[in-house]
Amino acid sequence: MSEQSPDDEQLNAVAALFVRHPLWEDALALLFGTALVALGIAFYAHAGLLTGGTVGIAFLANYQAGWSFGLVFCLVNLPFYLLGIWRMGWGFTLRTGCAVLLVSLLAELTPQWVAFAHLSAVYAALFGGAAMGLGLLMLFRHRASLGGVNILALYMQERFGFRAGAVQMAIDASIVLAAIFVVSPDKVLLSVLGAVMLNLVLAINHRADRYVGVS
């Protein structure tokens, strides 16, 4: 039995890093990731906060006009699916569509399952932002997103090497700051704090050179 050469061993070690996620792992990641995002949304909604991206747009529509968060979130994501198909492929776009539908559904159902007798707005901003960041991290690592800015951020990372978390942080901060005309200044500041927490989770943990699992 011949021994492997150092070159063969190195190639095998590299190949072992690119482990493909089985379908059941992708399904669980979609479920758990969207559940975490929906929990963060429940924290924000109860505290009157908002965040960036298409989630932030859905919050604004809900606060201003009383429209259903889930419905607006679904509709506002539709144009971004074209970018997803064009640049990220059908598999990514289909998983993203499933994630968007799950968040839309769970965001409507979670307040019926979880009630808050008391919730600090600061805690809601920090923990809600962290929960959404962790949920997005799970989705990103299984080649999915929540559409909108998530698709753009992942495209910028894959195409130009920019960190997805850093790209999303810049866009989200702009959207949250624009909400000064909708919510009170103190809620805007707390929303910025939550957006920083969310994107800090992504910026630290979601790097193309650290995680190479594929779906």
From TrEMBL:
<dbReference type="Pfam" id="PF02588">
    <property type="entry name" value="YitT_membrane"/>
</dbReference>
<dbReference type="InterPro" id="IPR003740">
    <property type="entry name" value="YitT"/>
</dbReference>
<feature type="transmembrane region" description="Helical">
    <location>
        <begin position="160"/>
        <end position="182"/>
    </location>
</feature>
<keyword id="KW-1003">Cell membrane</keyword>
<feature type="transmembrane region" description="Helical">
    <location>
        <begin position="67"/>
        <end position="86"/>
    </location>
</feature>
<keyword id="KW-0812">Transmembrane</keyword>
<feature type="transmembrane region" description="Helical">
    <location>
        <begin position="121"/>
        <end position="140"/>
    </location>
</feature>
<keyword id="KW-1133">Transmembrane helix</keyword>
<dbReference type="InterPro" id="IPR051461">
    <property type="entry name" value="UPF0750_membrane"/>
</dbReference>
<feature type="transmembrane region" description="Helical">
    <location>
        <begin position="27"/>
        <end position="47"/>
    </location>
</feature>
<feature type="transmembrane region" description="Helical">
    <location>
        <begin position="98"/>
        <end position="115"/>
    </location>
</feature>
<keyword id="KW-0472">Membrane</keyword>
<dbReference type="GO" id="GO:0005886">
    <property type="term" value="C:plasma membrane"/>
</dbReference>
<protein>
    <submittedName>
        <fullName>Membrane protein</fullName>
    </submittedName>
</protein>
<feature type="transmembrane region" description="Helical">
    <location>
        <begin position="188"/>
        <end position="205"/>
    </location>
</feature>
